[in-house]
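Quick illustration, no need to memorize.
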Amino acid sequence: MHRRNFLSLSAGLTVFSLASRAFGATPYTAGAAEAAMDAGRTVLLDFWASWCSTCAAQERVLAALKAENPAYEQNIAFFIVDWDEHGNGALSKALKIPRRSTLVALKGRQELGRIVAGTSKADIKALLDKAMASA
């Protein structure tokens, strides 16, 4: 593959990844997820990075599961937390997030479960189902 084609393809995939990542989830800003948690909502925090291949795999699984079961988006507040921007922030530190590609489900401030660097559809579905059960 020619370098120019490779760079064009890479740039296109990055833009697609960022656009698709934001679909159905709220980009995290300080206080937004915390307000939802303090209101007692069920929340899924997706700690990701645009350059992370594991994060991209998790995103594909989440998108497929949301398409299969629209109730997930109706009952769970999804937040994407940019690891490059918030990886050392208060939320990451409070939840002891070890790395990007971490999914955490919470009911209010109580953690229901987490997946670190896992991409199994069955595991992610189980986490979403557990979150749904608490909603």
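The chain has seven helices and five strands.
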